[in-house]
């Protein structure tokens, strides 16, 4: 089997224009620089400066700014459609409050056979039930705030229920959010089990419980104003105060990549 490189991974970030300066800015100054060619930002407004910084990889989905099923599903469906158009082997999607370590992402992804049906991520709940087209289904889903990865063969099988318009239809019929809908399509309709990973993290879990000495092993780490990683590990790398580094992304980046200019 041919070796997988970072160029084989399509990385998408879902955001909103209102978060460009409070969330996306931290991504652009840290981990985006390790995966500029592979990472695309899906949002709901134009931003000339951000698009320039992102090497033209800012996508205004024109899906609307609300958090209803139709707006969020339209965005994720656009991510999906764009991934398919690239021909890449993997779709790895994250939210705008995730620090992603592209080096570690590649290491983890290389542990799977991309030609198989692979759906890897982290659960937030064990099982959910929903009614869809007259039947009751049990399903699982990878928590969207932690991110997930889907292999191309599996993504192609999702096409009847996914995509910019189809995903919204699926959500509305099954009455569920966009990340739930992905899991529903995969685990209930296609009957492909999720592969659980402890390397994807969102702010839905207690981030302070993650040992800082294991940060280098993690694929993604989330943040919120009230839930942030603990950097007290005795590291010799540069640690910024919280006013300078509210997300803790800069301090984390310096821990993982100390040769970065702003870490010296």
Helix percent reads 25-40%
Shape: globular
How far is the first residue's CA from the last residue's CA? 40 Å
Query: With helices defined by DSSP (H or I, 4 residues minimum), what is the helix count?
Result: 8
Largest sheet: 7 strands, mixed
This entry's quaternary arrangement is single chain
Total beta strand runs? 11
| Element-by-element helix/strand order | EHEHEHEEHEEEEHHHEEH
Range of strand content: 15-25%
Describe this structure in words.
Its main location: membrane. This is Fringe-like glycosyltransferase domain-containing protein. It is a single-pass membrane protein; Single-pass type II membrane protein. The chain starts with 8 loop residues before the first strand and ends in an 8-residue tail after the last helix. The chain is globular and about 60 Å long. By secondary structure, the protein is an alpha/beta fold. The strands form three sheets. The chain has a seven-stranded mixed β-sheet with strand order 3-2-1-4-9-6-10. A two-stranded antiparallel ribbon has the order 5-11. Strands 7-8 form a two-stranded antiparallel sheet. It contains eight helices and eleven strands. It folds into two domains: 6-196, Alpha-Beta Complex (Spore Coat Polysaccharide Biosynthesis Protein SpsA, Chain A), CATH 3.90.550; 207-257, no CATH class. The mean pLDDT is 95. Helix 3 (69-86) packs across helix 6 and helix 6 crosses helix 7 (178-189).
